[in-house]
Amino acid sequence: MKNSTLIIGILLLVFCGANAQQEKGIVGLTNWLNKWTEFNPNKVEYGEANQILAGNISENTKLYKKNIYELQGNVFVTKNATLTIEPGTIIIGNYESKGTLIITKGATLIADGLETDPIIFTSNRSIKKAGDWGGIIILGDAPTNKFGNLASLSYDLDPVLSLYGGTNSDSNSGVLRYVRIEYAGKKIKGSSNFNSLLLAGVGKKTIVGNIMVSFSAGNSYEIDGGELSLDKLISYKAIANDYKFNYGTQCFINNSLAIRSSYLSSNTGSRCLDIASYTKKEEVNFTKKQTFVTATNLTLINNSNNLSADIQSGLVKEAVYIGENTNLEFKRTVISGFNPAIVLNSEIEINDEHLNKIKLEKTYFNLCKGNIFLEYNSNNEDLENWYGNAAFSNVYSQAENNETFVDSFNNKSPDYRLRMGRITVSNDD
Asked: Measured between alpha carbons, how far is 387 from 383 in angstroms, rounded to an integer?
């Protein structure tokens, strides 16, 4: 009996210890990036397409793993149809026609892959590059903060088929799970780039999790309005932003990862998180909910081999940009290798009212040249005093990434979980 009690006690200590070591940043008793991710997609041979996807899909349709599909031009799923994609299916975006998949308002996408058999969207070029094809757009009828109940994308798309927004927070646009999206974000003539995955007005019954976006020329993920939860997302070496939130989105994002390169940037923004409530104030109705993002257990990392030199050369900017009239709750998040970690829009007044809308709790700031600043203002004493308060339990360190993470420089199967044993806990910058 005593031996049994001892064994149970030891197991509990091991279990609790493993959890405690992974309190901050991405979590998991095992490395959840294994099996379904790919960090060298340009070395993978996906084969040649034997089926074409083009035009409008206006009735329920299923794509099968036995085929390889080429996405040509703008492919709209319309008239409340459901597009179902079997686990393991490969869809190749056409370079010449900017292959793009658009799930219109009322339609549904069921792309439910498996950990051992993910669904893959990639480029049709032999030498793949960021921006080879368009991306995936999902349009729902959940609320935004724009005037009226409808908005339309300005992506040179059919304006009738690119409407989104409404009043149904519970709307369901389907399932996107165990999916890889590679080399998307093609340039739009006279405009910016497509985003690899754009969720606009998407409702809370939509399931979005275990998605890896790699080498995106536009934002890896853009969420415009809607109300949804995101879990286990990866953005790998995007040129633009990793995660962009705008237009009143009410979003929970958990256990997710952004890996940036010092040598990839865009004049439209190259941050891990860009959080705004509007692009222009005149676009939105301030009686509606403004953007509110709750982010827990994120890991935001610049994985440079020579970070100090990159910062000195001006190649590294902030990890997070927070616009005015937004709410952000950061909890148990790791920000490693930026200059600085967080920048607040210059219109945000530094007082209790506004800072209570931007909560940073149990955040680990590592290897950053400065932690939190107001835009265009190098004097951050008030902000450091506020967020350095022991009540927030924020932690500061200057450890190298290879000491901070389990195996961040492994090119085939990296592990970005935190090595908690290597952290010197401090509330001093």
From this structure: 6
Identity of residue 419: R
Q: What is the three-class DSSP state of 416? A: strand
What distances in angstroms separate CA 210 from CA 32, 120, 137, 184, one per listed residue? 9, 12, 17, 18
Residue type, 359: K
Please state whether the peptide bond connecting residue 340 to the residue before it is cis, i.e. omega within 30 degrees of 0: yes
Tens digits of residue pLDDT in 367-412:
999 999 999 999 999 999 999 999 999 999 999 999 999 999 998 8
For the stretch 222-247, what's the b/e string if a residue is b when 16 or more beta carbons lie within 10 angstroms of its beta carbon? bbbbbbbebbbbbbbbbbbbbbbbbb
Beta bridge partners of 418: 405
DSSP state letters, 259-281: EE-TT---TT---SEEE-S-SSG
pLDDT tens digit sequence for 40-85:
999 999 999 999 999 999 999 999 999 999 999 999 999 999 999 9
Are the C-beta atoms of residues 177 and 209 closer than 8 Å to each other?
yes
The CA distance from 334 to 351, in Å, is 25
Q: Is 189:212 a contact under the CB 8 Å cutoff?
A: no
Decide if 319 contacts 335 (C-beta within 8 A): yes
| 61 within 8 A of 81, measured Cβ to Cβ | yes
Can you tell me the distance from the alpha carbon of 196 to that of 218, in angstroms, rounded to the nearest whole number?
7
Beta strands in 72-123 (DSSP E): 74-77, 82-85, 90-93, 100-103, 108-112, 119-123
User: Which residues, listed in sequence order, are joined to residue 198 by a DSSP beta bridge?
Assistant: 137, 222
Question: What are the domain boundaries of the chain?
Answer: 24-350
Q: Please give the Cα distance from 92 to 253 (Å, whole number).
A: 28
CA angle 255, 423, 264 (to 5 degrees): 55
| Cα gap 43→369, rounded to integer Å | 35
Token pair recorded at residue 426: 């401090």
User: What DSSP state is assigned to residue 166?
Assistant: -
